[in-house]
Amino acid sequence: MKNPKWHRDEIILALELYFRMEPGQIHARNLKIIELSDILNRLPIHETIPNQQTFRNSNGVGLKLSNFLAIDPNYQGKGMEAYSKLDYETFMEFVNDKERLVSLAEQIRRTVSNSDLNLKLYKIENPEEDETYRVKEGLVLYKLHKFRERNALINRKKKEKILSDKGKLECEVCGFDFYHFYGEMGKGFIECHHKRPLSEIESEVTTTIEDLALVCSNCHRMLHREISVLSIEGLKQRIKEM
C-alpha cells in the first residue's frame, strides 16, 4: 500500500523550509531535510502508515521540496513537476505571506516537540474531511484546539461560574437552554468552545475559563465548520440576519 498523501500541515512545514534553502541544498543528505523528516514522522495526523520505512523519509522530503522548484516562478530550472494541486495552492497562498507561513510552521513544531501533548493529540479523532479542508491553520492546531476544549476541570469551573452568575446554562450564540428544553435529562449539559483563534493558540499556554464559551451542540458544530474565520459574535450575527 502507498503511504498517505501529504497533508496541509506537512506541506506548510516543507514550504517554510523551502523558502529558507537554496536550490542546490535540496537533497536527502541535508541535515535540515533530515530534521524535517523526523518532525513529519511525529505529526499526530495520520491514522495509518502502511510503510513506516519510506514514510516521509529524507528522500521523500527532498522530492517534495523539488516539487516547489517546479512551481516557483523565480526558479530558472525545471524542478520536479509531479506536484499536487494542494502543493500548488499552498505555495500560491504563502509565496507573498511568508510571515504567516513561518508563524504557523513554528506553532506546529512547538506543539509536536511536546511529546506528552503530542501523544494526547494522537487520541483526538480527525474531523470530517469537509471540516479539515476549511482549517487553514492545519490539523495539528485544530486538534490542539479540540484538546483545549476537552479539559474536564476547566469546563466544570466555567459552568459553575456561569450558573453562579446567571442561574442557568444557555448557548452564548442562540440562547438554547438544555435544562429548559429537556428537563432533568438536560440539567448541567452544554458544550464548551475554545474562543482563541487557531492562529494564536499555543501548546504551552494553559486554558482559562475566559478562553471558553458555552454553546449548544449545533452552534458548536457550525463554529468548527468555519473555525478559521468564524467567531461567537460572527455566528450570532449570522443568525440575526437570517
Describe this structure in words.
This protein has helices at 8-18, 31-40, 58-71, 85-94, 98-113, 115-122, 129-134, 139-149, 152-166, 178-182, 217-225, 232-241; strands spanning 191-194, 212-215. It is mainly α. It folds into two domains: 8-113, no CATH class; 148-241. A two-stranded antiparallel ribbon has the order 1-2. 30% of the residues are buried. The model has no long low-confidence stretch (mean pLDDT 92).
Short description:
By secondary structure, this protein is mainly alpha-helical. Helices cover 52% and strands 3% of the residues. It has two domains: 8-113, no CATH class; 148-241.
Descriptive tags:
242 residues, mainly alpha, two-stranded antiparallel ribbon, 12 helices, 2 strands
Q: The biggest beta sheet, please? A: 2 strands, antiparallel
Strand residue percentage: under 5%
User: What is the residue-averaged pLDDT?
Assistant: 92
**End-to-end gap:** 48 Å
Set down the secondary structure blueprint.
Layout: H1 8-18, H2 31-40, H3 58-71, H4 85-94, H5 98-113, H6 115-122, H7 129-134, H8 139-149, H9 152-166, H10 178-182, E1 191-194, E2 212-215, H11 217-225, H12 232-241
Antiparallel strand pairs: 1-2
Helix pairs in contact: 1-2, 1-3, 1-4, 1-5, 2-3
